[in-house]
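Reading is simple: the C-alpha cell line describes the chain's fold. The lines below illustrate.

. . .
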Amino acid sequence: MKKVKFIYNPFSGENEILKHLDTIIHLYQQQSMEIVPFRISMETPLENAFTTLDESYDHILAAGGDGTINQVVNIIKNKNIDLPLAILPVGTANDFAKHIGMSSNIEDSCKKILKGTPKDVDLGFANGKYFINVFSYGLFTDISQKTPTHLKNTIGKLAYYFNGIMELPTFKKMNISVESSEFNYDGSALIFFAFNGRTAGNINIAYKSEIDDGLLDIIIVKGDTLTKTLTSLFQFFKSEHLEIPGSFIHFRTSDLKVSCEDKSIVTDIDGEPGPSFPLNISCIKSGIKIIY
C-alpha cells in the first residue's frame, strides 16, 4: 500500500479542514493509499513532516492557504524531495489552488487529485526563496496585510478594493529600478507583481500568465496621478488593465533585477513575508510537480 504524507493546517480558513478529515482518509483508503498525517502547529517545526519520507510514498498532500503551500514548497525544494505535491484549498484566498482547478469542495478536490497526474509547473525564485504564485510589494501588499481576515472571507476581492481606495491618498509611491533582457524601467510605482500564477486576493491580475512557459509575468502599476490611478484601479479590478497602455507595464521574463530607494518597503511572497532589496527574481522552469 502506497503512503501519502498529509500535511494540514488546522487554523486555515477558520478551521475548515477539520470538518473533512474523515472524508479525506476514506477517499484515499478507497484507492489503497495510506494517509500519514502531520498537523501544523507552533510547537513542532514543519520540517519534521518530511523526515520519514521514502520510496513508499506516492505524493505529498498539503491542506492550507497560500502561505502554508509556500512553506511546503520551500521545504520540498530545499530538501531536494522528488515527490509530487497535491493541494487542498482551505485558506482565505487559495489563489494558486484555484488557478489549477481545485474546488473549495474538499471531497471534489480529493477526487480530482486521485484521478489526476503529476504535471511540471514553474516556480518563482526571489533572493533564495521560492514562490509558486506571486511575489509582490507596494500598495497591494500593504492592503493585503491590513485587510482583516473576516472581510476577506465575507466579501472577497471587494475587501481589497475598498481598503485600496482608503489607503490610496496617503500611500507613498516607490521609486524603483527594473532590469531584464526584455525590458528596463526606472521610475515610480504604486504596485509591483511578479506572477507565476494569475490571481492574488482572488483578483485576476495576471490573466495572460501560464504556469509552464518558463516565464514570469511582471506587472507594474505606475500610479502617475491620483485621477489616473483611480481609473487604472477600476480597470484593474475589472481584469481589463493589461489592455490599457501607459498606466500599466506588463512584460514576461525569466530573470530580472529590482531595486528600490526605500529599503523599508516590505515584500510579500505567496502570502508570506518576502526578502529585502535589492532583488534577484527568476523563473525555474518545471521546478516542481503538481497533481491536478
Remarks:
- The chain has two domains: 2-116, 129-286.
- The radius of gyration is 19 Å.
- Residues 2-116 form one domain.
